[in-house]
Amino acid sequence: MLAPRVLSRRSVVILTTFSIFITGLLITSSRLGAVCEDGSSCDLSNLRHSLPAFGGADDANYRHQKPPHPNSTDGSEETDNSRSNSECANFPDTSNVLLVMKTGASEAYSKIPNQIITNLKCLPEFMFFSDMAEKVAGYTIHDSLDTVLPEVKLKNSDFDLYHRQQKCPTDQESCNKNHKVGQEAWNLDKYKNIHMAEKTYALRPNYDWYLFVDADTYVVWPTMMKWLEQLDPRDTHYIGSVAYVANFPFGHGGSGYFVSQATMKKFFEGKTGVANRWDERVTKECCGDYMFSLALKTETEIAVKNAWPTINGEKPHTLPYAADEWCQPIVTMHHASAQEVSEIYAFEQERNFSYPMRIKDLYHRFVEDRLRAARDDWDNLSDDVFYLNSSASDYDDWELKRAKKENLSALEMAAHQSFDDCRRACQSLDECFQYRFHNGICAISYTI
Hints:
By secondary structure, the chain is α/β, with parallel strands linked by helices. It contains 18 helices and 16 strands.
């Protein structure tokens, strides 16, 4: 039997030193309460729980989303900053409206993050749809096209971009090099509208209102919510800025259109494959917003109601400013760049999200101080009437159609000769606000 080993003097010293170290660590840890955020005494476990976790979970998604909506097992983004955040304290209650934003994988990373930190910041919930399922800035992007009929996707050049995106092993920008992505995205976009509406209703069937917009559309929510107070979601509303295809009216998608609970219910409730019934027809048409209107009218007899200029396809620097539009309220603006979305949101903050925002308010904030008597190499979008000499140069048909040919004054007859002649012609006309001279054309405008 082996006798027990006696510890050497060196081992005793090491053990004693280690014991003192452990005792000191315990005493120190008990005093870590001094660094806790709330100033109270806490131990290491409390301190650990007060810090963010650096694990495998999607931390950004966790911080910004509430638990899943009770009406669905998946779907939209619910934020927890809408009412408690002081920045959103005066933001209206939008809990009865679901924003549905359409984008594409080729543009999502350039547009969605900026929307999240500005225009969508105070919303309690919203949804994103695209042509590929992915996460952007921690938010779910739904694939609106995964349920398009397989036979429509097969051997259809409209879906070249869709298939290439699915196979891309790196970032989309790299995979899209040497391709005409703009045209491809446009060809693909028209298949989205009906499908994303059907998916939205399946995921979120209980909202009073559904607002469909593009990722470069800005929504003025205080004005929007005051407007909706005047409307009953139990009525069949489909409202937008009306455009036409072959004399058939539809709500322009970029401007945004909103539909009531009654309309969505009549379109989709108790039905399956509504969007699939129109997949084949979409291949022959130009646009998804037109197809949404056509399908809705055919399926339900509900037609679009025009709300221009309140629902608008322009933005502060391209809106027409004149008497007819001056005092009109505005709810949506389209083709807004990331910078412009940020600037409009800052303006809303300056206004403390007050109601209403009118077109004249945008003029005073974004246009008035930037007006100049003249600018070189600048297109001010004047295009109401053209003055030109059709025999002196070749002009496009649309330019010739806008040319004034009869009852011209002497100043109007000379307007096409130079910039100064164009200016004099404009100044002679009471209704002329501005003018533009280029390529032998004097163009005047009745609005700014």
